[in-house]
Specification:
Strand content: 15-25%
Order of helices and strands: HEHHEEHEHHEEEEHHHHEEEEE
Number of domains: 1
CATH architecture: 4-Layer Sandwich
CATH class: Alpha Beta
Bound molecules: glycine
Shape: globular
Largest sheet: 8 strands, mixed
Helix content: 25-40%
Distance between the termini: 47 Å
Strand order of the largest sheet: 4-3-2-6-5-1-11-12
Mean pLDDT: 86
Length: 333
């Protein structure tokens, strides 16, 4: 190729790519979380962020908080699978692309902390099932009794009457108990299917964490997007980070959060990057998408954030030095 042609092609390519302006970080520290229950999660993370702590410690603290929340569809209080067993998925990722993950973990209170131990104490990224449990016990985690919470037990008994396996859209806005847990129980306790959070600390470093009991009444052994790096969570400290909530199978099909981060790399805002990922799901099978919910939530290196969902009803929580609020996501269908 002659030199003139090469220069012409190179400048055309550069013109097409809008790189984020990394010199203008405008919003740090910051933490964003899926759902309105993310408000309390953000508070737990903020204690670390506001005292100049690291984002990896902040996101773990946020996830630990929700895993301890009774009756939440995260942690041991979550809904069981169709065999009546609660199986937990979690992952964590830091600014250096270190990451750890557990899937199908039973009877452990804090899967997020086991995921962090996988990240820090093993050469691996993901441990599953009995192997994850064995690793947790070897690392000092206590085995809990495996009993369902009273709400999960009631919901499971009700589900057994019909054993219906269809996900309900935005069940989080309804009072009945379907395959996805409602946003709030009648006593006001927050209750969502997945908690994903992303934080940037005062040093400008990004981390993320996800924890969930997964899709309620799933087939025993089913793993969703949440513990899969690039599906339920992805962090690239040069560009941004993203997390997801909703029907994990559809997120996995498009490597959802990796896709969102790659759109941000191309210069899209967090909201537009999430929208383009949601469009991939909707365009693949619009009829199927009309029956499910998926929401993506993202932050870029400037501390700008945004979300997009298939359906109405996805909300997320944001905490910075200037705001502490719940945002409603835009949606496609
Ligand atoms: N997004 C949670 C799951 O599908 O398990």
């Amino acid at each position: 190729m002659d030199r003139k042609k090469f220069i012409a092609m190179s400048s055309l390519g550069l013109a097409a790519i809008k790189w984020p302006n990394k010199s203008s970080i405008i919003n740090k520290p910051i933490v964003i979380s899926t759902w309105d229950s993310g408000m309390a999660v953000n508070e737990a993370a903020w204690k670390i962020l506001s005292s100049n702590g690291k984002s990896i410690d902040a996101v773990e603290a946020g996830a630990i908080y929700i895993e301890d929340t009774i009756n939440c569809c995260v942690g041991l209080g979550g809904y069981p699978d169709r065999d009546g067993i609660v199986t937990l998925d979690a992952c964590i990722m830091d600014e250096k692309s270190n990451c750890g993950s557990v899937a199908g973990l039973e009877q452990i209170q804090h899967p997020i902390s086991v995921a962090r131990k996988v990240m820090e104490n093993t050469p691996h990224i993901m441990l599953v099932g009995n192997g994850a449990l064995q690793f947790a016990l070897e690392n000092g985690f206590k085995k809990e009794d495996g009993k369902l919470s009273s709400d999960a037990d009631n919901a499971y008994k009700k589900w057994l009457e019909k054993s219906d396996y269809q996900p309900e859209i935005n069940i989080e806005n309804k009072k009945n108990h379907g395959p996805f847990a409602p946003a709030f129980f009648d006593d006001g306790t927050p209750n969502h299917d997945t908690m994903g959070l992303v934080a940037m600390d005062v040093h400008g470093d990004l981390s993320g964490a996800v924890t969930t009991s997964g899709m309620a009444f799933k087939v025993h052994g089913r793993v969703g997007d949440s513990p899969i790096i690039g599906a339920g969570l992805f962090v690239d400290n040069e560009i941004g980070a993203a997390t997801s909530s909703g029907v994990g199978e559809e997120v996995i099909r498009i490597c959802g959060t990796h896709t969102v981060v790659e759109y941000m790399r191309q210069g899209y805002s967090p909201e537009m990057a999430c929208k383009k990922a949601v469009e991939r799901i909707v365009n693949r099978d619009t009829q199927k998408a009309s029956g499910i919910q998926v929401g993506f939530l993202a932050m870029n290196k400037k501390g700008e954030f945004g979300a997009y969902a298939i359906q109405k009803g996805f909300v997320y929580s944001v905490k910075t030095n200037n705001e502490n609020k719940i945002y409603t996501s835009k949606y496609i269908l």
